[in-house]
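Hi R.,

As promised on Friday, here is the backbone we talked about, encoded as structure tokens. Could you run it through your design pipeline when you get a chance and send me back a sequence?
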């Protein structure tokens, strides 16, 4: 299964050719999504949700990498909300 899903912890030569192994909506991955999620990405999601639900703040007060992550998460948040409104 690890080889079929191209898990990231396998050496590149054992993963085989690139091909989609997971897809949902507009998002897809060429390797197992489990191996793509890092402690840093989980921290960004948790921090983003705290930031968002506390009213947000000025992005220019954040570190550049954090602001970039928040902009990506905000775009995905809005895309998800738009999709929910369209299907209702």
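Update: got your reply. Pasting your designed sequence below so it's all in one thread:
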């Amino acid at each position: 299964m690890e080889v079929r899903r191209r898990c990231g912890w396998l050496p590149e030569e054992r993963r085989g050719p690139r091909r989609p192994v997971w897809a949902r909506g507009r998002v897809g991955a060429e390797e197992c999504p489990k191996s793509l999620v890092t402690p840093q990405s989980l921290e960004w999601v948790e921090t983003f949700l705290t930031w968002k639900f506390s009213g947000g703040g000025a992005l220019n007060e954040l570190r550049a990498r954090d602001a970039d992550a928040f902009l990506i998460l905000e775009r995905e948040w809005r895309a998800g909300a738009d999709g929910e409104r369209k299907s209702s």
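One thing I noticed while checking it: The mean pLDDT is 83.

Thanks again,
M.
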